[in-house]
C-alpha cells in the first residue's frame, strides 16, 4: 500500500471521527433540547386549554352574578340576620291596606333556637297500625277488598349549616278586620311578601254591628312564625377558613 493511499485512508477516518464527534457534541444536545422544548410546549398548551376552559366558565358565572346577587338579596330579606320586628309590622300594615283591611293587633314571642326535626321511629308507626285479623275468621267482602296503602311520612331533610346557634324562630300572631275575600287577599299578600311568614293557625270571629246584628266583617287571626338566620361566621369557622 502506497503512502498516498495510507494518507487518504487516515484522512477519511479522521473526517469520520470528526463527523461522529460533531454529532454527539453539537447535534445530539440540540436534538435533546428540541425534544424537551416540544414536551414543554405540549404542557403549556394543555395548561392554556385548561385555563381557557376555566375562563369560559368564570365568564358564564360572571354573567349570572347580577341574578345571583338579586336572589341572595331576596333570600336575605326573607330570613334576615336579626329579628327586625318593626319592619315586619310595617310590611303587614302595607299588605293589610292593599287588601282593604286594617291590622287590629300584633303580638310576638321570644325567639327560640332551632332544633332539627327527628325522623319518625318504627315504634310510633307501629302504634298507629291495627292488628291483623285472625286466620280462623271468616273472610268478608270488606276484608277481601284491597286495603288502601298507608300514607308515607315525608323524609326529614336537614342542613348541617343550619343550627340552633345561628337559626332562631319567633312566634307571631296578627289579627286583621275584614271580609272573607279580603282575608284571602291578605294571606296571599303575606305569603308573597318580603319577609317569610309561615302561617300555622287561622281563626275568625264575626264582628257585630252597631245594632248588635252580624256583619260581613270578621276579625281574622293568623298565627305562625318568622325566622332569623345569623350569617356572621363563628370564631371556629373563621379560624378554619383562615387556616
Describe this structure in words.
The protein has 243 residues and is α+β, with helices and mostly antiparallel strands. The protein has 6 helices and 5 strands, in the order H-H-E-E-H-H-E-H-E-E-H. Strands 1, 2, 3, 4 and 5 form a 5-stranded antiparallel sheet that branches. Strand 4 and strand 5 form a beta hairpin. The radius of gyration is 40 Å and the shape is rod-shaped. The model is unreliable at 120-137 (pLDDT under 50).
Mean pLDDT: 78
Largest sheet: 5 strands, antiparallel
Helical/strand content category: alpha+beta
Series of H and E elements: HHEEHHEHEEH
| Number of strand elements | 5
List the helices and strands and how they pair.
Blueprint: H1 3-78, H2 85-98, E1 102-108, E2 112-113, H3 122-127, H4 141-144, E3 167-178, H5 180-191, E4 198-208, E5 214-229, H6 235-242
Antiparallel strand pairs: 1-3, 2-3, 3-5, 4-5
What would you say about this model in short?
49% of the residues lie in helices and 20% in strands. It has six helices and five strands; from the N terminus they run H-H-E-E-H-H-E-H-E-E-H.
